[in-house]
Every structure is written in C-alpha cells, then in structure tokens.
Queue: 3 jobs
Job 1
Amino acid sequence: MRRKRVLPLAALMLCTPALAGTAPAAASPRTAPPAAGPLRILLTNDDGYNAPGIRKAFERLTAAGHDVTIVAPLTNQSGTGTKMMSAPTLTVKHPEPKVWAVDGTPGDSVAFGLAEVFADEAPDLVVSGTNFGPNVAGLATHSGTVGGAVAALESGVPAIALSTGGVTAPDPVTTVNAMGPTLDFAVKLIDRLRARARSGPLLPKGVGLNVNHPVVGADGTGTAAGVAATFQDPQNFLQPDFTDSGDGTWKVTVKVALRPAAKGGDIEAVSADRIAVSPMNADWNTGPADHALASALITGLRP
C-alpha cells in the first residue's frame, strides 16, 4: 500500500468556515466540465455498500439535487488502502436501482464503476465515504476510503474522501449521529467547488481532497469549530504490538501512540474540533527539493 503525497496547501486553500479558495487548474481528461444541472456522482466507501455512512451520504447528496449512484464493496473492506485488481474475476451484484455491490476493494469498485456503470461518460465527481472513524496521518495511507478516492484520481476523475471521527476510537452511535454534520459540510464543500469551477473542472487536475470531520458534542451532533486547510500529519499513531504465543503464532494488538501534532496538520485540526481538508494526489512524486537531493546523490555514480 502506497503513500499519497499531500500537495502544497497553495494548490487548493480552503481555510475558513466560509471555505475561501483559489481557482482550479486545467480540466481532467476523463471528465467533461460539469453541466448546469445536478452533478453525476459515483459514491463509494470501504465499509460496504449497505453501511450507514454511504446510505446517509446517498440520501443527503440526492436531497441536494445530485444524481448519485452507489458503486461500493459488497463487504467491509476497511484498511485495504489502494489495493485493487488482485483477482481474475469479480462478482458484482445490482440489488436495487442506483446501487452496485462489488465483491472487491474500494479501488475495484471505482474501477468497475468508471469502466461499466459510467462507461458512456465519466462522473463529475467520486465521493468516498463517509467512513467510520478518522483517516488522518498514517491512517490515510492505509485507508480504503482514501484508496477509493485515489482510484478515481488515477483515472482523471475528481474525488473527495469523507471520514467522520477524531483521533480516538470512534463510538458507533455518536459517529453515526456525526455523519449528519459531516454530510452537511460535504454538500457545502461540493457547492463551493462547483461555484468556483463554473464551466471548468471541480478540482485541479489530479487533485483530490481528504476530508476529516470531527465528532463534536456528547451525541455527535455538535457544530465543528471551523475548517482548516491541512496536510497529512507524517506520524503513524497506531503501533502494532506482537506477543509470541510459543506455538508458532503471534498475538497482535494495536496501541495508540500519539506524538505531538504537526502544526497545520490534520491531527491538529480534528483534535481542536475543526474539519480537516487535505489536498492529495495519487502519485508518488515529491517536490523540487527532493528531486535536487536525488540528483546530488547520483552525481558521479555509474551502473
């Protein structure tokens, strides 16, 4: 599973509850500019096509006037990251109108959706989520929710990953409640992207957004303290702990080992009850300084 490089914040600055931002870049090769009517949205996730988060997202985005089609895993695929196309066949079910269930990963689901369900014309946007629990810091690297968005970006389709939760273990009841505020914000964000895009692409070419909405209030229905343009905090705060059982097997537990949050990162934002919006892309490219380092390293080297 590979790491998604977070783009510089200047690539897309969304820095207040009003969501002020910069103009997008050139159009994606796979998508036409959004029409004046509702957006055509492919909705996926990693919790499964019938999970509460994706069903609530379908209802809320449809109520906002968008044309939404679910193409999501048949079963829970949390933690599968960007894994896809690891089997020669896929079982796909079509249990109801506007719903496709793919027996594979979020990436498999998006690939099938783009190739078959949206074969005639790519969707205007892929939304992945909303997910149970956060996908911040190192969690984002291994997240199936983020992986579904990455699969869309690899095909040139704008994408948003949506997650609901702070940096502690999510309580199912309060998380489900908090999915309402998450999706209310998602609708506002999509409206803002669309208003800025006018007749152009929703996002700059190759850029997606990883959105993490905190759980606010005892019942999860509180209002976030604000919105922050963030980057993926470099720490991985879930640490595996292995215990030898003495019979050739090892017990595995996971410990939470939070280090101080990086200033301006996603952990800092959600810990302060702010919504973290992190630009991301689907490739492994780094910045000019890293290219300069590589050039210096190979100077004088010969095969």
Note: Helices lie at 52-63, 106-117, 137-142, 144-154, 172-197, 266-271, 288-298.
Job 2
Amino acid sequence: MPASRTDAAADLSSWLENYRSVFVLTGAGVSTNSGIPDYRGADGQWKGRSPITYQQFVGDPAMRARYWARSFVGWPAVARAQPNRAHAALATLESRGVISTLVTQNVDGLHARAGHRNVVDLHGRLAVVACLQCDRRMDRALVQQDLKARYPHWSQHTGATAPDGDADLEGVDLSEFEPPACPHCGGMLKPDVVFFGENVPRQRLARALEALEQSDAVLVVGSSLMVYSGFRFARMAHERGLPLAILTRGVTRADELATLKLDADSESALADAIG
C-alpha cells in the first residue's frame, strides 16, 4: 500500500538525519510534475511505444528522419519545462551538505536549472546536440532555429510530449523531413544523450562510481531502476552494505535490496521532508 504523504515525508526526513554524505540517483519520476512524462507505469511496464535505439538512429535514415521530425515538434515543451519542488528540495539538501553527488538518468537538465551544482548527467542532456563525425557540440536551440527556417509550416503541428523529448505525431506525413546535418562537416547530428542500446560514456560512469564509493548512503528518487545503468548503483550500494532508500511510485527492480522503500509522490514527499 502506498505511504501517505505525511508518513513518507516523515520517514524520509528521519532517514536523512542519519547520514552525512548521501549519494542520490534520480529518474523520470522527479520530472513528471514538470510536464515531462515517464516511460513506465507503477507496475514497471512500458506505458506506450518503445523509444528509438541507437542502432535504429544511426543505421536507418527513415527512423532518423522520423526522430528529428518528432523532436522538432516536441522540443519546445521540454525547453519550457521548469524545475518542480522535488528538484528544489534536492538542491536545498545539497546546499545543507546532506547530498554529496546527484546522478540523474534524466536528460532534461532540470536539476542544474534548480540550482543543483554537483550533478552527473548519466545519460547526457537534450539541450546539447553532437556531431557523430567531427564530435563538435552545439546548442539544441540553434538546431531548432535551423529546422524552423527550413520547415516553417511544421510549427503548426502539435502532439503529446513523449519521454525522450519528442512528440507523438499521428497522421502526419514525415516523408519531406530531412534530419539536420552538422554545419561544420556535414556529419550526422544526434542529441547528446545516451540512446537505448548505447553505452554510458566511461568517464561519466567513473565519476558516478567514485562518488558512490565516498558516500555513506544511497537515495533513489523517481526511478523504477528497470534499466541497468541505474540499477547498478542500487546493487553496488547493497553489495557494499550501504543503506538504500527508494522514493518512487510503484515497484522497482531493487525493492528487495532497499532498507527503506517509500511508495509516494517524489515532489510532495521531498518538499515536505525538508520542511
């Protein structure tokens, strides 16, 4: 049975008082109240379509064009999203010295915008676009401007925002849409995020693992941990004997490893926990 809002906040507050260096891992549940949907329901199953994979993006021109067409329509909603009270609460806990490092599976950049300083964007950020040929990085807003100039009539299209920053477009002819190319070398452009089927960059992972080694407890917020890139931190915490608290709606892959499991809304519980 889900914990009540008061009980979850009280239990989390009491748990946090016992530790001085908490490693935090966040997932999509932290940002749902900011208007960015998550991939899975409370049962841990996919809510809708599976996201595009890295292999599909780089190997199938039609899938790549489809992704960029949907991304063009969906990006404004992501760009407008604002941090909610969960992001603010975690930034406050960092400022109080409770949180050592925050690792997020999210690609929306909302933790940084909320004022959180020590953030590891495990899967990258949608606000950055990378060239797969020359490795240059550029602002996603500039790519959006270029696409808008090439396809001005596409601004009229709307669709429900999807978890990976694009939009669900039904009945729209995508055949005319060509993916953007690197303005420097003409190479393939891809959002600077880790797609399904792609590995987390080693340096980024090493930074997260080092932070975990130096922490005395682990708190997971808003993640089902169904993806191994997140689950590994819960498993490592358990192997090292570190207390593991999980705050999220529904089941997670690490429920049996947790020393505290709170089935509650992340935003309300965090905001109330810090007073």
Note: DSSP finds nine helices and eleven strands in the chain.
Job 3
Amino acid sequence: MTQKSPNIRRRRLGHVLRGLREEAGLTLDAAAKGAGVPRSTLGRMETAEARRLRNSDLNALADFYQVSSETREGMHGLAREAKERGWWSKYKDVFGERALPDWEAEATAIRTFEPQLIPGLFQTPRYAAAIFRGGRVTADENIERLVEARVNRQQILNRIHPPRMTAVIDEAALHRLVGGREVMKEQLVHLSHLAVRHNIDVQVLPYAAGEHLGMEGAFTILEFSEPRDTPIVFVETATTGLALETPEELDAYNLAFSNVQGVALSTSLSATFIDEAVTALERQT
C-alpha cells in the first residue's frame, strides 16, 4: 500500500485555495481581509508552507469563497491527511522538514543523476555507513540510525506498484572506493542486480562523454500520478534539501537530465560496464 504524502496534500490544498482566490479575482491581501484570516497564514497555506492547518481558517475561507459542501469537505480532508505522520517523521533529524521520503512516498516516476555516489535508493548498508562516516570517527549508534533511515527509504522499490526509476550515474561513482574494495564490490554487484528489475533503468555516464549539463551536481526529479500534482526537483545540500517546483526550474532540470541521459551509455552497455568494474575489483584482491 502506498503511503500518503503530507507534503503533497499540503500542496494540493494550496492549489485549491489559490485557485479559489484567483477565480474570485482577489489579491492575497483582499482575500485575507475578507475571510478574516491573517495574510501571512493564507500566504503560507497557498504555498504549502503552513504546518498548522486550522479548521477555523479553512471554514472562514470556505465561507468567504462560498464553496460547495463537497469542496469544503475536500479542503478539510486534505488538511487532515496533511497532518498524518509518515514513517520518516521519526527520522526528522536525518531528513529535515520537507523530507525526500515524503515526496518519494507517492512518486510514480523518479529520475536521478548522481555524479559522485551510488544513488541513496540503491545503496547497500555497508556502503551507506561508509558514506556517513566520511572518514571521520563517529559513534556507531549514530551511523546505525542514518543507515536504518536510508534502508527504510528503499522499501518503495519493493512495493507492489513501485515507481519507475531511472538513474544516470557518473563513471566516477563506480570507481570511488567507498568503504574499501570488499564494500565497493558488494555495492556494484547489488547495483547490477537492481539494474535488471523491470521498473529500474541504470545508465552509466562515462568520462569519455566529456562535458554535460549535470556538472553542477546531483538532483532528482519526481513525478506523480495525479495531474494536479506537478513534478518537483529535489536537490540536496550539505545542510538541507530543496524542493524546486517552478516551471522554469523544472524546465532547466528536465533539460539537464535529458542531456546526461542522452550522452550516457545504454542500459545494456551500462550493465556490461558495471560487471567490468566488479571484475576489475576482483583482480585487485
């Protein structure tokens, strides 16, 4: 069963509220004043940034816009679902506020580009642990919690109707000895097994491809089944994750992904490339 995404419910509610205001031909100031709702509150609700969705505010807006009982109930239904807590909520210290697993929960297609590492959804526990240590001395219990959160994320690939996953991985990620040869070999073998799943495509971007539009860093594009749920681009930084969704941002990242995918090896050639990388590691041991 697919878990509902609170972020997507907040965004749907925001689209409804913004649509009602625009249909009425009102500015944010005018709508807030007319409904008796603080302007800042209405602004955060329309942009899906409001974490607290009060029934009194929703009723005031429904009364002001004179919506049907069905629309009113729909607004409250979205607000209720936006308050539900996904499994990732207990890892808030790991994922942050607008958690990537929240968006992944309802994604039907995920396209990701990784220039340095094997994508998180494909990582083995030992590979992930090595990344989280990053060459530092860190308490084992802290690493275990981070790895546990990452492994839980990967369960979306095992559900009855998993998302369509397309990953373009730079050759550098296959050569970097994260965790040493044994850990890296295990990771590459795992990657080769994933690559033959019906819902997963893995393409390697070789050094020989030269320059490309993904050189500024990793990113993930998530798409959803509902037409009203427009895609988002998720970009991780050293301190947080950014969910980008303006048409201009989506166009830029769609173009970047099309570019890196176009110059990457085909899925069949990529499978051979990964197998050769495994063989090269075996020869070194």
Note: The two ends are 43 Å apart (CA to CA).
